[in-house]
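Hi all, posting the design record for the shared folder.

TITLE: backbone redesign
STEP: 1 of 1
STRUCTURE INPUT:
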């Protein structure tokens, strides 16, 4: 892919016509498709959707084409415009819209844009989404104060200060600015345990490391851990309050592609 892209740029610099460039691109993509098909198999024309019920029995629904499945499984109001990226970055102003330059994955795509919000606003939106049975894409610094075997993430998991006699007292802002902490791993936020006043106590991730990691593939983290190591999520705009939605109408502050929150 990179070799083909380099070749196209060289051809463009040599003033090759748009028609010829299109032909070259088509041949390059054909090679990429062939390699992927040899390694992974050709994409199915149809497939049978099956799943295991609570008793472990395999249930079979019906055959789909990929497009049929997409149309049936996605909500009626689904649109990328309805899903907003929100971030907690204490190094920058809250209720401000930011855009990371040159972060789009395709020429026709859009750059990353996010609203920077306080943790309490993010938690409120996340809890509302979970209560409505809508899981949320999130990204955090999963390696910090975490136990991979038990699947527990808590600020008191390891007491490095007592072990080494050295203070480990940087706050989130300082850790971000020194690259000690960053958004490093994406997971699905699926659950929240609250107290009698509906205040979050702990949360749950569905991870992608397999059933052997954590608690059968799930990670539980305290609300305090959320404050320190949760960074961003993508959530339906219905769960954001008016102040956050108003932030979307601002002119975005431009950030470089190498920004530490990319």
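Okay, here is what came back for every position:
SEQUENCE:
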């Amino acid at each position: 892919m990179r070799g083909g892209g380099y070749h196209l740029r060289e051809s463009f610099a040599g003033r090759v016509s748009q028609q010829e460039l299109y032909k070259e691109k088509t041949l390059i993509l054909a090679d990429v498709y062939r390699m992927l098909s040899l390694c992974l198999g050709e994409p199915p024309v149809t497939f049978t959707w099956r799943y295991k019920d609570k008793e472990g029995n395999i249930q079979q629904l019906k055959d789909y084409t990929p497009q049929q499945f997409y149309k049936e499984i996605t909500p009626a109001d689904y649109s990328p415009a309805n899903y907003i990226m929100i971030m907690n970055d204490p190094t920058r102003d809250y209720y401000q819209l930011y855009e990371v330059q040159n972060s789009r994955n395709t020429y026709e795509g859009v750059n990353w844009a996010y609203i920077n919000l306080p943790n309490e606003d993010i938690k409120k939106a996340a809890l509302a989404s979970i209560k409505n049975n809508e899981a949320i894409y999130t990204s955090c610094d999963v390696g910090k104060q975490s136990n991979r075997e038990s699947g527990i993430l808590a600020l008191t998991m390891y007491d490095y200060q007592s072990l080494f006699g050295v203070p480990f007292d940087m706050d989130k802002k300082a850790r971000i600015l020194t690259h000690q902490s960053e958004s490093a791993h994406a997971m699905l936020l699926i659950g929240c345990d609250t107290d009698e006043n509906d205040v979050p106590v702990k949360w749950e991730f569905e991870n992608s490391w397999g059933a052997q990691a954590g608690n059968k593939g799930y990670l539980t983290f305290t609300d305090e851990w959320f404050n320190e190591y949760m960074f961003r999520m993508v959530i339906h705009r219905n769960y954001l309050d008016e102040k956050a939605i108003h932030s979307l109408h601002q002119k975005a502050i431009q950030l470089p592609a190498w920004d530490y929150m990319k």
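COMMENT: The CA atoms of residues 52 and 58 lie 4 Å apart.
Let me know if anyone wants the other runs.
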